[in-house]
Batch of 3 targets.
Target 1
Amino acid sequence: MVVLVGLNTHTDLGRIRAWWRTLGGDRFAVLPPPTRGRYTQSDGHEDAAEMFAVRGIATDTSFAYWHWQSHDAFARSGELTGELCLHWGGDHATVAAGLGEGPEGYRIVNGGPRGAFLLDKVTATDADGLPDPDDTTGVRQLLARLDEPRRRTARSTEYDPLAPAEERWLHDRLAGPVDLAAAVRFAAPLEHRQALTPDETERLLSAWREAYAGRLTAWRGWRSVLPALLRQKHPEAWEVAAELGADAAYALAAHPSPRSLELLRAAALTGDGGAVRCWFRAHHALREPDPVRAAAALSGELTEHTAPETAQTGLLQALREAVADEPGTRHPGADASFPLLLATVGFATDERLPRPLRVAAAKAAADTADRVREAAGRLTDAAGAAAALAVVDRYDAARDDLLAGTGPDLTGYEGGLGDLYHRYRTPAPADVRWLRDRVADPSTGVQGIAFCLELLYAHGEAGEAELEALLPRWKKELTKKYRTTYTEWRHPLVTLTCLALDLDHPAAEAMLAWWAKPKPLWKTPVRLLTHLGAPDETKAAELWDFVVSSADDNGQLMTWVLLRARLDGTHPLLVAERLIGQRGVRAYVLNRVLIGVADPAQPLWHYAVDPRSHSWLRRAQEVADDPRLTEAARAIGLRTAREHYAFRYPDQVSPVLTDGQLAAAHAWAAARADRTAAD
């Protein structure tokens, strides 16, 4: 566990903190070093807003800070063991000038207007640019440089060749008795260039299998040793690969053979997306040169063996990459991403492919078709443009049939679910049926239940059927910790409790009794969110006492606003705007609540405004233009919208904005250029 130590200038942390205290000045400020409460960049921006308000600092002041995750660069002793990421807000040039070159003995690397500043020690090197092997910081910096790819694609990574002195230095580190903890760092840059020797590989293999018997993946160095074993045709390569299972997929795909194909197939049929992609690559290389026929054959096998739906998604991704890499896919006037986008849309209606793969393509093309249509308009080849538009037209005609009764992958990265949350703002009857089916499905995990139940509850579509489906699972499964800080939905047991209370179901009493117990501790910050179910004045008062306290807000203010709106029969926006400037209500929390409740049929529970989200931009614009609201409330919406990445870093908005969406956003902002955003 990392701990903050005092200003002991004999440690890196002490020296950096002492320097940090000297910073700040005209139009530039630094936040105090972090606690666990500042865990992300969003937390940093909220801390800055709070500090500006407390100290009377102008809101357009530029600032710098680091957060608790960045603080992991320090060891318990205060030693700097990695680059310290310094994040920032405001004007990049002002921040760069304010930070300067860093404290004596350290350096700052400017990551540019879209990156962080990186602070690290200054180290000594010899004539070949190599550090003393005993200089831990110098060694770390060298290895970081050698491990930086010169080119990375979805299918391969390329590195600059090693200088002779660099290669000798690395081999020297692997000589003598094997130290697996140290070897992992030196083996990687060598094998990235296929330079591990047979002797080094053999010695590493022996030590690895002895020290990590039965748990080979626990040693990170296997990612270098396995490729070397396959490359050197070592007799134990296949036994090791089989024990590694799906984790070995990428190495096996890089060395296609009948044996590797057999192992990849076994891993792919489990539904592992990476294994499926690698299985396709090996099959395509060995058995079927036509990528569409190769994908069709593997899709059939996945269906026959009832592999999870995610397997078809992985197969589609591999097919798209293969086709986009083929000669002749480039189009005059199109950017590099166009072949991949066009292939995605085209596969949805390609009758050579089985329906499960076409459905996967149709889902992937949901946010792609309009981009292809726009890109086609920029092509200088008239025939190519017409062909691309015809592909989109076929997709548009088939889309509804292909997507009927489908939904997103509920088991993947939750950020992917957040990216498409805006699609469910007005759910179609087919969407509601799909959400209900997923809640009723015993195989749906906690994340999937949280996502689906929240949407059903918010839209008034959750009922006794959903409650009864989950009652057998709530004590064993839904009482587990599930972090929802970065999502638009709440913990599923919060939502289920609200539903039980609204329905006056007998199970509500047991759930409330569980919430009232002191353990587990994870539930304490979110217990009050259950007050949204069957609201009354007592619950409203308890929530309000929390809101005006100094405790961290985990959705309590939003819950109070939604609860108060239900009790008063009014729109939550009108409730929220009455709190502007009220003592005890933190402005930065209220601002994101004001945006988050713009549509009470689908509130946004993320703990901060997400500047990459379609939902947050649209709600901010609606608040800015709502004639029912005061100018102060509308100004908050306007400022929030202007700070969205659509206007600052449009390529970071997810899903990617079309040209039309981006133009509409800028036109909207330009039409309101004469309005001044409130502080």
Target 2
Amino acid sequence: MAYDADVIVIGAGLAGLAATAELVDAGRRVVLVDQEPEQSLGGQAHWSFGGLFFVDSPEQRRLRIKDSHALALQDWMGTAAFDRPEDHWPRKWAEAYVDFAAGEKRSWLHGQGVRFFPVVGWAERGGYDAQGHGNSVPRFHITWGTGPGLLAPFVRRVRAGVARGLVELRFRHRVTGLGRSAGTVDTVTGEILEPSDVERGKASGREVTGTFELRAQAVIVTSGGIGGNHDLVRANWPERLGAPPEKMISGVPAHVDGKMLGITEAAGAHLINRDRMWHYTEGIENWNPIWERHGIRILPGPSSLWLDARGDRLPVPLFPGFDTLGTLHHIMDTGYDYTWFVLNQRVIGKEFTLSGSEQNPDLTGKSVRGVIGRARADVPGPVKAFMDHGVDFVVEKDLGALVRGMNALTEEALIDEAALRRTLAARDREIANPFTKDLQVTAIRGARKFLGDRLIRAVPPHRLLDPKAGPLIAVRLNILTRKTLGGLETDLSSRVLTEGGEPLAGVYAAGEAAGFGGGGVHGYRSLEGTFLGGCLFSGRAAGRAAARDVS
């Protein structure tokens, strides 16, 4: 039986596009299949903020950030905390990825026309010792154009492959099985779904109109993770975090369901670290949702007071932006699945950035005027829309009204006004003195020593109860499903491995389906800015390896 292509790529997200682009450069024929309609080309990367992890970049050097390969590798390994026998390949991928981030990654993207916002962000600051979790220096580089801007060159390269007759795009093709011939996986079977003209991200129909069978010398799985499948998230929830949350909101659409992972596993692949996930603790329900249970993550500056459901401050160093997994662990120990930020308008105006391309029209639209307008606004427009319409926001002039509003949002009236007033007053007393024992105040002052934070991310220390800085604001924070850190085990050529450690002949994997490389390159935690880059790095590796291996 003749082959339909040299390689079949399953999943038209960033990793799939990167793999396909490399195959086109090598002159290989590709069929790229995806269950969603063409208007969703690019997958979840389209919705992203476009954050990328670079090491010792020109942007860092201009801001006097001293970074190095050795420091980045120390941070990655301290953050990942690899501790399992199956972490062999994830560790190898981590070493290779830091090499990439400190080496050709930026010049490779820059050569394709990708540009970067000049202010570098400082995500996942850690707060432990030097060898523990966190970024020792700012490394979060925002793509000029956010997710769509990063996708653009890879979409362009794939479209050029279509024009050359090397790429066939088959949308609405949902894979249901992988088959073998003579010991090699070379057959992809599935269902053809009804055509759909829904806008990107909206739920598309699932009526089956036919079946398909495709054959190729190699198959690359780039189907993403499990974040849209809450049942699977709960099934894989780690025991170390206790019971899974009763309520979760979704950072990805429901079609990000993880089913292709099971299909590949059934074909002989080794799926590892399935209990490692990266869910955010600062999720808010989108007041203008695109998909079901659509949540948005707040990328917070350091000044908001973070309280548990009962109104108690989270322990050191669980400040905004410091340790996502540590915060999630603490929240689940409280017996509740939500927390609160308490702040004022002065803080929200400068320190709240909402993740996602649609929440940052200035950066996504590459508008210098828009960026300047955001910097000058008391509260940026997208954030103001949540203050006005968001179900998780309470905005009041006085603390009593704020507490009443907080308690009205929850099933139990857990916040005591007198206790919260004492907490705020005690914190505010520390502001009057250049010395403090409140480590969050120390963290705010430390953040402002970094020029980028002082310019756009951290307000000067001030009393939260200062009427001139008001009104007061409380934000209920939900658990937001997002990234899958485990996945299909792969070697450094992105070849999928079996449980015995041998390559599963004919199968490669990249992106989130491969745990962004190796089956879990991040270990237990992410340094942020590493997901899109992981899609690019592993997708490129898969495309290049498959191009070499097919005849």
Target 3
Amino acid sequence: MSSAGEVVAVGSPRFTLHTLGWRAFQDLCAAVLREVWGQSVQAFADSNDGGRDGAFYGTWQLPTGPSSVHDIPPGPFVLQCKHTKKADATLAPSELEAEFDKVSALVKRGVCGTYILLTNARVTGTSEEEIRRRLSAAGVAHPLVLDGQWLSDMIAAHRGLRMFVPRVYGLGDLSQILDERAYAQASVLMASAPEQVATFVVTGAYRKAARALRDHGFVLLLGDPAVGKSVIALMLAISAADNWGCAAIKARTSEELVQRWNPHEKDQFFWLDDAFGAVRHEEHLTHAWARDLPHVMSAVKNGARVVLTSRSYIYNEARPLLKSYAYPRLHEQQVTVDVADLTREERQQILYNHLAAGDQPQDVRAQMKPHLEAAADAAPFRPEAARRLGLQAFTSRLPLTRQGITTFMAQSQQLLGDVYDQLDTHAHAALALTYATARDETLPGLPNPIAFDAGDRDIVERAGSTQAGVSKALTALTGAFLRLNTSSDGQEYWAFHHPTLREGFAAWLTTQPHLLPVVLTGMTDQALLSRTDCLDRDSEQREGTLLRIPPSLYNQAAKRLAAVRAHPYGRLASWQHICLRKRLSCRTWCPAAATRSCVPIWLQTRN
């Protein structure tokens, strides 16, 4: 086995840089100069850049790395990027006529002593000589031309570059840049979310998280639903496998983290989504974290790296119970990252990437184009909404106007009901099965292939579908609505592509009387306790949309809860210990019930 980061494939690596957008390519080039040459490069805005994509002022400090360029004298330096979307394109001097015209003006203004041209295209020896001659003729003292192969070599040679420009993991053969173990781990992670890797944008929040993980070994990612917490955690996991050879473990609870931490293996990476609850604060999870934090911090001190995600409103409820005063690391601002803090340029790049990766026809994109700046300025801006804007499945009835698109971006969750209405009965049955099913602790979704049990068949039949229809629908829904994941033991399973899609489906179910009883029956006890509520239709609901059970199903739900109470303590022990110890009442489980007779649900059932 080779060391981490070594090029193990035969021959020079070649990354598909043509699949990047031009802005992402420009950011990559700036990152190369910062990481490879150690210079503080200033990147300019998209317009009015004066013929410069970037610049550097001051004395160039020559680094000692073997792959560095050592013959560049003091500047000022100008960075110019030329990107092509054509694979295996070759850059010709004739394509740079406009740039040659600008260079003379830059030289006269005294801002260009060294001119560095970076391109993802190939550059022949003859073309490189001609480009340098033309730049010298324009007054440039030191012209330098670096092509796509040089960039690929730098990506392969510098792990730090890949950590801060992680999208490169999706641009080439991982075996060329990772060692055997890291390659296997990163491949599994990327296979579970190839779209997230392909559309990822390096934001200020990501860079802050990466620095916190590198310097402190711990980071807490906070934000509202659909702002990209899990995607950042995924990219950090891939980067950790590359940079430190970390064994990536996606734990589900603090207890599982402690159990799987090996004090004799320093390079472990733990990633926990929704650490304190998925859609609402789950007090038993927070109490477990308060109990296990000493062990978690000991793991971090001994070399483990830990990334937690949580919705902000859930963390605000959990924080007073964490006793964080005893753990200064939780109070350090640099390890807590608000991932929704995006610049305007970052929002625009996220929107561009998702539209480029989507399946919208060219004519639809053309009609959207005049309104995309307004879409990026929509408040709140959610990357998940940008993903949906790029998919026909969510926009078939969308008015392609400024108002229509901005409303979609800001209120896409409210529009989901209309989208679910458009799906056929087979799709409804497939989504209902996915929502209701949580087979066991190691498989939090609908297994692939499906082995239909009696409960599954009942859901399918009552929804008006067939087993064959559901199987076909699952394939059709994968990508837009569902995602095919792989468990730790290699079992594939379907889950909602994003938690907000699951929550939107729960809200839609409340309008479907024929499906709601079916899904309630098919739910496991764990799903019933964590995904349902019975608030009045017009009452204010806590953040995190749950499956709202109507009064007509209270008796059925009460019977289920009575059965939960009768179970011996097992995997639901934490729920029983907290909820039943407090004599879980209709008022506790159902705040709106304060206006009705309010006695414990299990007593109502018994009586």
